[in-house]
Amino acid sequence: MQISNNKVISLTYELRLDNEEGKVVEVVKDESPLTFLFGVGNLLPTFESNLNGLTAGDSFNFTLNSEEAYGSPTDDKIVKVPKEVFVVDGKIDEDLLQIGNSIPMMDRDGNRLSGQVKSVEDDAVLMDFNHPLAGNTLHFNGRISDIREATAEELEHGHIHAAGGCGCDSCGSDGCSSC
Predict the structure, then answer these.
(1) Would residue 14 count as lying in a domain?
(2) Is 144 helix (H, G, I), strand (E, B) or coil?
């Protein structure tokens, strides 16, 4: 079976900065492969286009320039966040607000994002919401471990379902019926 839209793909890879000899950023091994629904926009489009047509067992080796990956960092993604946003149980967790910490957050629309603490002021925290790999060329070297047909429910929800439920809002409070 070849990789194409609406197939569930499992793969392993090594991600390096710049090129094949660059600094290793991430390694995904056989024990815990990256598994995703192909062609629905959950991954970088150029990453997916480099995999299109491959079959289980095929290797891949390609580079994405920064614009094909996460783009260049922009100043509009560096934001002052009021310090009261970080109040938990009536007080600010000062350990959380350490320069360099990445903090999972949500925007006004409920979208999850991660911000890195750049500085802490008396009444605000300067956060950088650029993707951590923005501005970098990314090199991927890996192997396709499995390809399968997506279930009707996965296609309806736009992502894969795994044992224990997927946790998506579409699945309801008791998880996915097919998980």
Answers:
(1) yes
(2) strand
For the chain, the C-alpha Rg in angstroms (whole number) is 19
DSSP-derived secondary structure letter, 177? T
- Tokens encoding 26: 């991430």
Domain ranges, residue 106: 75-128
Question: Does 2 fall in a domain?
Answer: no
pTM of the model: 0.79
Please give the C-alpha separations between residue 101 and each of 18, 118, 129, 169, in angstroms, as whole numbers.
Answer: 24, 8, 12, 29
Q: Give the amino acid at 176.
A: C
Of 42, 59, 31, 33, the residue nearest 6 (C-alpha): 42
Number of domains in the chain: 2
pLDDT digits (tens, 9 = 90+) for 71-124: 999 999 999 999 988 888 889 888 889 999 999 998 888 888 899 999 999 999
